[in-house]
Design goal:
This protein is α/β, with parallel strands linked by helices and about 230 residues long. Helix content is about 40%, strand content about 20%. It has 2 domains: about 5-115, Rossmann fold, CATH 3.40.50; about 125-220, Winged helix-like DNA-binding domain superfamily/Winged helix DNA-binding domain (Arc Repressor Mutant, subunit A, Orthogonal Bundle).
Length: about 230
């Protein structure tokens, strides 16, 4: 499967060179020349990596990155810019960037960084939103909402829900669930069942349709009809 990239850069000639190389290497690229349009495209489409300049019209790369993270978009983001100072790089990371490459650069290095970023999701999003389930996690405040209703979670229930939600729509196996709560000091086999039951009571009991399903110790969030 091809890596899909959103490239945001106001220097159209420079962007054309980069896009031509990436597409020659088998990547699929969408392009826009300002941060405001970048936000719109990132909200509308699913990308594996976002590559953006910093100094752009309408909304700069820092503002774009910050806005995406506030909205819960966890696409890995690489800032590509002529700004070389450490403070500039730190500002990018503070806004939620995952990597930083200064101009001039080798196109092969850019490709390598994109490939690495495409294998994971960013941990810098401030929210985790699963719209089809009506579920929203405020990662900074450690608060979870279903259909806009605050779920009262214990610290252990929050840890479980976060790791299961981050994996959505995939399952999380028993070993990962146990490690999330206890690390390497796992108690008896019934302890996890107790914690799963508590989480179910909070996330499903007040609602007509269950979201949390456990099969052979693997946990997943899904609607019954999906």
């Amino acid at each position: 499967m091809s890596i899909r990239v959103l490239y945001v850069e106001d220097d159209k000639r420079f962007a054309a060179t980069v896009i031509e190389f990436l597409e020659l290497m088998g990547l699929v690229c969408d392009y826009c020349d300002n941060g405001l349009q970048g936000v719109i495209l990132a909200e509308k489409n699913q990308y594996d990596v976002i590559v953006t300049d910093i100094n752009m019209p309408k909304l700069d790369g820092l503002g774009m990155c910050q806005k995406l993270r506030q909205q819960g978009i966890d696409t890995p983001l690489l800032m590509l810019t002529a700004l070389h100072e450490l403070d500039d790089k730190l500002a990018g990371f503070d806004c939620g960037a995952d990597d930083y490459l200064t101009k001039p650069f080798e196109l092969k290095e850019l490709l390598a960084r994109i490939k690495t970023l495409s294998k994971r999701r960013s941990g810098n999003a401030q929210k985790l939103v699963i719209q089809e389930l009506g579920l929203e996690l405020n990662l900074g405040e450690r608060q979870a909402f279903r259909e806009g209703i605050l779920l009262k979670l214990t610290p252990s229930s929050w840890k479980l829900l976060e790791v299961i939600a981050r994996a959505y729509p995939n399952c999380v196996d028993r070993q990962m669930l146990e490690h999330t709560i206890w690390g390497d000091d796992v108690p008896d086999s019934e302890a996890l069942k107790v914690h799963i039951h508590r989480l179910r009571q909070r996330i499903d009991k007040p609602f007509s349709e269950p979201l949390l399903h456990v099969v052979n110790g693997n946990a997943v969030l899904k609607r019954v009809h999906s």
